[in-house]
Amino acid sequence: MVEQSLEHGRPTMRDVARRAGVSLATVSYALNEGPRPVSGDLRQRVLAAAEELGYRPARRGRVRTRPLTVGAIVPDASNLFFSRALGAMESVLRPGGHVLFAASSGEDPARELDLVAACVRARADALVLTPTAAVPAQVERLAAGGLPVVLMDREGGSTALDRVVMDNYRCAFQATRLLIESGHRRIALVNGPVPVSTAAERRRGYADALAFAGLPVVEDYVRAGEFSHEHGRQATLDLLSLGTPPEAVFSSSVILTSGVLHALRERRLRWPDDIAIVGFGDAAWVPAVTPPLTVIEQPAQQLGEVAARLLLAHGGRERVGQRVVLDARLILRESHWRPSPALAPPP
Fold first, then answer.
1. Nearest C-alpha neighbor of 64 from the set 161, 148, 120
2. Are strands 294-297 and 329-331 parallel, antiparallel or unpaired?
3. Torsion sign across C-alpha atoms 247, 253, 258, 259
4. Which residues contact 159 (CB under 8 A, 6 or more apart)?
5. pLDDT by residue (tens digit) across 63-74?
6. Which CATH number is associated with domain 69-166+302-325?
7. pTM score
8. What number of CA atoms fall less than 13 Å from residue 177's CA on the CB side?
9. At what angle do helices 40-53 and 13-20 cross, to 10 degrees?
């Protein structure tokens, strides 16, 4: 017999997850056929549990008779990482006749709210958001009212919204550990703003990798600021001016890395001979510099594709707060090796 503890007397997706012994997200993936693949055995277990409980998915809303208009709000649409993600979103949406428009928040929470309000006034059918900090309450209310909302790249503390992210903590831990295993001990972090979740996770991964190796976090070696070329440049110049400068740098975004390289060239320093580098994010120019840079590759295109597919899969289904975590890979090139001469402070 079906247990009588089901919510409101009818089985829900949570009941199916409990009966199948899987996560709520796995049930959603199995029943909605995406956006992440589910093995055949796991899907059969979910379907069997649903059949046993008599679960029937909520009816979808009215069949769409017109293309969707999707608004996307990101920190900087001209940033290579976000422009690639937006381009990937559009490649998924365009075949269905859907239209994407994007705007930049500039990491300004007030502007972010203005842009959300503009999307509402423009009657956007869905919203993709890379939040500046915590997800605004207004966005949570819009989602609760039925507007499909997907968070991209940053979670913003939300557990109720669908989101697609990468494992920033693990990637930062891996990058820092590579520098440690290459023989470096004085390792600096050039990072993004403290309130931004991706920057916070990268700092945590960096700190834990140092701790795992028995090394302290030297606060003078940690430089937080906006994700910009100029911050990367100035932070690196400041690091090089220390009495005991670092012998390696982990740069937490590709735009920061461009600034790091600019500063090193200003000081006529070479990597890895004078200082080692591991970057976060790949770009067409990264392997072309000499020597080519070792980086953590960010799956920008996949982020955009999955965000779009999450929106298209919404279709009136129960909100389950799906969390899709994408893998990133370490691309080993030549910039992480231990420098031969010790770096002397600049004159």
1. 148
2. antiparallel
3. negative
4. 321
5. 444 789 999 999
6. 3.40.50.2300
7. 0.75
8. 15
9. 120
* The CATH homologous superfamily of the domain defined by 7-53: lambda repressor-like DNA-binding domains (1.10.260.40)
Whether 69-166+302-325 and 7-53 are alike in CATH topology: the answer is no
Spatial contact of 275 and 249, defined as CB atoms under 8 Å apart = yes
The 10s digit of each residue's pLDDT in 243-300 is: 999 999 999 999 999 999 999 999 999 999 999 999 998 887 887 789 999 999 989 9
Q: Note whether 111 and 135 are within 8 A (CB).
A: no
Scanning the structure block, which residue is given the tokens 């869905």? Answer: 126
Residues 73, 102 contacting (CB under 8 angstroms): yes
Integer CA distances (angstroms), 284 to 15, 267, 289, 293, 297, in order: 48, 24, 10, 11, 12
Q: Are the C-beta atoms of residues 294 and 266 closer than 8 Å to each other?
A: no
Tokens 């703003």 — which residue?
193
Exposed/middle/buried for 196, CB within 10 Å: 0-12, 13-18, 19+?
A: buried
50-77 in b/e form (b: 16+ CB < 10 A) is beebebeeeeeeeeeeeebbbbbbbbbe
